[in-house]
Amino acid sequence: MSDVLSKANKSIEKTRKVDTKRLLKRRDEAKSDMDMWRSLLENAYHYIIPNYNPWVNHGRAGAVAPGQQRDGDVYDLTLPVAHTRFVNKMMVGMVPQGQHWFEFVPGDSFGDESSELYQAALRITQQITTRVFKILEASNFYVAVQEAISDASISTGFLAVNEGDRANPLQFEAAPVSQVMIEADAKDGFSAVFRDWMQMKCEQIQQVWPDAKRPDNKEYDSKCDIYECSYVDYEASSKERYKYVVMTSKGEILLEQTSASWPWVIFRFRKLAGESRGRGPSLEAVPTAATANEAIGDELTAAAFQANPMYMAASDSAYNQDTFQAKPGSIIPVQMIMGNWPIAPFPQGGNIQFGQLLVADMRQQINDILYTAPLGPITAPDMTATEANIRFQETNESFAAMAPRLQREFFDPLVKRIMFLINKVLPETFGDIPEDFREKMLSLDGEVLQLRYKTPLMISRGRIQTQNLLSWYNSYASMVGPEIASATLKTIETAQSLAQNEGIDLSNIKSAEEMQQTAEGVAAAAEEAAQGVPG
Question: Residue 202 in contact with residue 218, Cβ under 8 Å?
Answer without folding.
Answer: yes
